[in-house]
Amino acid sequence: MLRYIAKRVLMFVPTLVIITVIGFFISVNAPGDPVERMMTAAGSSGEVGTQSASQVEQKRFWKQKLGLDLPVFYVSLTKLSYPDTLYKIYDKNERQALERLLDQYGNWEQIAEHSHRLNNIYTRLLFFNPVVDSQATYERDEFEEDLNTIRFEILSLKSCWQHAVIQTKTAVVKGLMSKYDLTKPFADELDEVSGAYQKVLDTRTTWKNYVPALHFYGNNQYHRWLFGDGGIYSDGIIRGDFGTSYQTKDSVSKTIFDRIGWSLFFTLFSVIIAYLVSIPIGVKAAQNRGGRFDRISSVFLFGLYSLPNFFVAILLLMLFANPDMLDIFPASGVKPTEGYPEDANIFEKMWLSLPHIVIPLICYSYTSFAFLSRIMRGSVIENIGLDYIRTARAKGVTEKAVVWKHAFKNSLLPIITIFAAVFPAAVGGSVILETIFTIPGMGLEAYNAITYQNYPMIIAVLTLTSVFTLIGYLVSDILYAAVDPRIHYR
Amino acid sequence: MMEKEQEEFSFGMYAWDQFRVNRPAMIALKLLFILITIAIFSPIIANDKPVFCEYRGQWLFPATSLYTTAEIQGADGKTEIVQYDIADWKRMDLETVIWPLCVYSPYESDLDNSDYISPGGEQFFTGKDGKTVEMPTRFKHWLGTNKKGEDVLSGLVHGTKISLTIGIFSMLLASFIGVFLGSVAGYFGDRRLQTTRARFWLTIIGVFVAYFYAFVVRGTVLSDMLSNSGLLFFFQLLWSILIFFAVLYLIRLFGRLFDRVPFLNKRVYVPVDMIVSRSIEILNSLPKLILIISLSVIAKPSVWNIVLIIGFTTWTDIARLTRAEFLRTSQLDYVQAGKSLGLSEARIIFRHALPNSIAPAFIAIAFGIAGAILIESGLSFLGIGVSADTVTWGSLLSAARENFNAWWLVLFPGLAIFLTVTMYNLIGEGLRDALDPRLKK
Q1: Which has the minimum average pLDDT: B38-47, B87-96, B227-236?
Q2: Above 50 in pLDDT, residue B433?
Q3: Is residue B76 part of a domain?
Q4: Which of A70, A239, B35, B189 is the most exposed place for a label (fewest CB within 10 A)?
């Protein structure tokens, strides 16, 4: 048995590796730049095109802290024309522009030269704050405005790849530069950039795009995510650190720890309620199979099964949490809006939360009624036809004891399987229900994470759910063996 | 006599006979045909343009016309250009007119009746003379309006199209993947597909090379299409997949060169079943809804992207059932007979074994469509998935969250989802009863 468990646990490893890689693949392909978003959220990004030096510095810091300055995976399969250091360009738009240029022309050296010159001119422009002699304010303003336009256009040139766009933009910038004596030197520099661009056009090696190349990286995002970076910014999930949330800049593990309580509560209790309701129904239906109770309950449960839970949730809210209908239950949250009183003990807290959890609990549990009672009915029917039941009956055991002591006990197997699903379900939470009822659980967190593209959280949820699912499978298999001595694993 | 009966008997006919006596399932099947009809004819069932009208002596078919404008030559010699989507048809002097059943388009805001008008509530209509009168019966909002004054009935009709499209096409994709992988896994198992060492390793390398040419080289094209249009992306994806297999095939051809090299020509088994079963396990252990939601955030919101996402994530049940069935079928005599006759493996699998093993997959497909419709409505309820200006059952329902008094916004879309899902579940049940010989009547 132990050997079997060890073997199964060992099998987790490749599965988990693939799952985390899937999560990574999703997060890397996500649109937008997390650092950019974090800066915008913090309100620290200034006018377009006028990034200050401190912002650049701050960006670099977050890139490092989040590990986004590293290559993604151990291996990358790219085109021969791509250099193995492309990941170092940390601006997503700029990197994309370079990739597109490479796709078009395939000569990295020349493209790098072009981009290098462009960067130079941009940095110099950033720090170029001349004192304008002119007395007239409007002249000064006009100059300032044109300088800003120049900066903006150069910045946007860095993320351009279409030939026509580059040509037009360069012409516009050049026109503006030659307008003032102060910016004339830049115009000459821009000519050099154009020269570099012309060279890119002249020496294209497109064939390199059709030759595969492999690059290997020892230190990469995935490795860092698994094992940490030596404790500077991250400990790696090996030590329970899921990284930093893009949304709150908090630790993901801490957020999960805070949030999982309510999801666990709801999944656990809904399963218990589902058992309490559907086991008796299933057994009773099996007892008089084909009878009235059997038919009516199966039709009713079948209907319940097809009802989408968000429909039921809204319907219940409309009926019972509506000032114009019956205002019995609150519409959202899990505790009174003013919070618990300070001196409340756990029971008082539960009492205060009770009205909040009634409707959600109904919505959580009713969906499994049909499924569970059907399984129960099926396995009781299967058992009731067996010889040992006939023996029991022949011995004169009461019908009640026959059903509950003999048949029911032996029909428990499928019920175990359902219980194994509780823990993975808790990690994922119920996205829809938690959003409707604003339950601060994992489902709402996952939903927020997805809409905010908070990928460390999403990967954490994906990984944890699959870990728990795999453990759940294993536990239910072991329980099978424990309940049924006929089952053996090797 | 006996022989003739044998000839005419087929499992399909038997199953159909079994299915036909199942009354709920038959009713559900008829309902499904009605829904498909509604979905196909939705432009002439609910539209703000008339199906047919006569305007200044000219016949127009605005609802179905492929043109966007019409030039009207009046008797007085003046030309008037009618732009179909801008024209205010309800207030035009039309000589004869045939309206659709519901005279509103799903996104058309009726300003006279905005802010949640209930089906029985008072509705108004401003005529072309500028006077507001009581709503003419023909123009009534039979199922009420939402906040912006959009007609609920029209939204329901057009939502039918989206729900059915997503349900049916995503399962079509899922069943292609699931049936193919399931049958291959079940038929070959782990110890039946043999190949030489050289070809085995070349194929593994070839997968990466093929991936390179199909997806890395075409990466920019694919990502451009992904952010532009779902359908075009679909074609580009198909093209990429085609390239993938073509390259793989070429590399395998190349592998034949090594067939005579001593070490490399040793025969090895390909663990097909293990690969497929492991993939099913991986996909099943991921939280499906969260996976689907995070994928739909990456992709541009569109119906076809949702079809792709649901299709690629829900094939596991179909594959599992097909595999189990194939494990049984591949041991049967006629498969062995086919082998001894020297038929190719592909022919045995897809011509002979598949028709006898596909029954369980049908059941899974019926339930799968119900599931896909539930997922789609859940996604649009959350405001993700299809683009924000597409009216779906889920998005209608979610509008009710802003106003709990608008019961018609909850009830009608909710019932539409419920009915459709029940319908597919009933069909699934009926199929299960009909296809499982153990439940024979």
Answers
A1: B227-236
A2: yes
A3: yes
A4: A239
Give B 367-406 residues with CB within 8 A of chain A: 370, 374, 377-378, 381-382, 384, 394, 397-398, 400-401, 404-405
Domains and CATH numbers, chain A: 75-216 (no CATH), 252-338+352-483 (1.10.3720.10)
Same domain assignment for residues B229 and B292: no
What residues of A are in contact with residue B429 (Cβ under 8 Å)? 302
CA distance B165 to B160: 8
- A445-451 contact pairs (CB < 8 A, 24+): A445/A255, A445/A256, A445/A259, A446/B290, A446/B293, A447/B293, A447/B382, A448/A247, A449/A245, A449/A247, A450/B290, A450/B293, A450/B294, A450/B297, A450/B384, A451/B297, A451/B384
Write down the pLDDT at residue A420.
76
Same domain, B296 and B385: yes
The band of A250, judged by pLDDT with boundaries at 50, 70 and 90, is: confident
**In the 3-class helix/strand/coil scheme, how is A46-82 assigned residue by residue?**
CCCCCCCHHHHHHHHHHHHHHCCCCCCCCEEEEECCC
Q: Among candidates A407, A299, A321, which has minimal Cα distance to B400?
A: A321
CB contact under 8 A, B382 and A99: no
Q: Do A306 and B418 touch (CB under 8 A)?
A: yes
Task: Give the tokens for residue A363.
Answer: 């919505």
pLDDT band at residue A484 using 50, 70 and 90 as cut-offs: confident
Cβ-based neighbour number of residue B222 at 10 Å: 17
Pick from A50-54, A214-218, A355-359: least confident: A50-54
Query: In B, which residues are within 8 Å of A436 by CB distance?
Result: 401
| Whether residue B302 is found in the same domain as residue B418 | yes
- Contacts B284 to A, Cβ<8 Å: 469
Residues B333 and B259 in one domain: no
Asked whether residue B421 carries a pLDDT value surpassing 60, the answer given is: yes
Angstrom CA distances, B182 to B245, B320, B423, stand at 19, 6, 27
By the 8 A CB rule, do A331 and A321 touch? yes
- The shortest C-alpha distance from A370 to chain B (Å) reads 13
Q: Which among B286, B381, B384 has CB closest to A310?
A: B381
Tell me: do B410 and B428 sit in the same domain.
yes
Give per-residue pLDDT as tens, A439-465: 888 889 888 888 887 888 888 888 888
Residues B287 and B307 in one domain: yes
Judged against a pLDDT cut of 60, whether residue A47 lies above it is answered with: no
* DSSP H/E element including B71: strand B69-73
Distance CA A371, CA A13 (A): 32
ipTM: 0.83
pLDDT at B170 over 90: yes
Please check whether residue B220 touches A, CB under 8 A: yes
Query: Which of B156, B290, B397, B401 is best to mutate for the A interface (most A CBs within 10 A)?
Result: B290
CA B305 vs CA A56, B193, B376: distances in Å: 36, 35, 11
Q: A359 in contact with B at a CB cutoff of 8 Å? A: no
Decide which of B81, B99, B117 is a domain's last residue. Answer: B99
**Does the structure show a pLDDT above 90 at A42?**
no
Residue B220 and residue B174 share a domain: no
pLDDT digits (tens, 9 = 90+) for A2-18: 888 898 888 888 888 88
Strands B132-134 and B124-126 turn out to be antiparallel
Question: Taking residues A43-57, what's their average pLDDT?
Answer: 58
Task: Answer whether residue B430 is part of any domain.
Answer: yes
Q: How many domains does chain B have?
A: 4
Q: How many CB pairs under 8 A join A and B?
A: 137
**Residue B54 belongs to domain spanning:** 48-99
Q: What is the pLDDT of residues A157-197, one digit of tens each?
A: 888 888 899 889 888 888 888 888 778 778 888 888 888 88
CATH number at residue B400: 1.10.3720.10
